[in-house]
């Protein structure tokens, strides 16, 4: 059995699970660099992965559309870290009889990163740290968060955790999502408001929705255009939730105070990306779930998925194959 682990950017997969437990004679290959196909060359991905029986993939780093799955004749099992992966065509896997298994996650690291970005923006941490190293002292004014309004687009598990921290800072927290009710918001100590009101009145807007056809572009030009010129937008969820062109325009022309972004339409971010030259931004390379604790669970569960499948009793199935 030939097994490949993809997109191990940090080079930790080999040490975080006991791969010696794979069936005797198994061959393990670990790809630490992004495959070319994730940047638009599907032929390179198909050629690299064609020999493998089992693939372990990291969340949504390398997409697996039907066109790629159909070009992998040896593929018998696909394991993705996490409990969902929008970049995998589950229907295509099912049509081929390829089971897709997931893994657990621990904690709420994305909520923690969200607050890292909010604080970095409000306290000007990257700019002031850079200025200090260059010999300059106190180059601008920072802002207080207490008594400001935090607007959450989504109040699920992560949104609720972000709300608690905002409340601890003394912020007024409001929320909106397509299905949010007044009762559910009240349970979290949050006020439900209409979508436009949230964007027009919040000092910090943070996005915490699952990407779907219904939510794609949910933060569009109208919402960004309604924001205060001093407000910050933070997105640690998925790039597709926010109209990239509208956000770039607002940042470039100073229509909003700044943005903290952890997710991008193309990842890894190309060296010529327009994001790299935008003012008033704090950018991180999709770090929301990249913690040692999560990775230890990811890879150990992935190994368990493979062993369960070889024993004829697959676990954590995401597809019915």
TrEMBL record:
Residues 41-315 form the D-isomer specific 2-hydroxyacid dehydrogenase catalytic domain. Residues 116-288 form the D-isomer specific 2-hydroxyacid dehydrogenase NAD-binding domain. Keywords: NAD, Oxidoreductase, Plasmid. One of its GO terms (molecular function) is oxidoreductase activity, acting on the CH-OH group of donors, NAD or NADP as acceptor. Belongs to the D-isomer specific 2-hydroxyacid dehydrogenase family. This is D-2-hydroxyacid dehydrogenase family protein. It comes from Azospirillum oryzae.
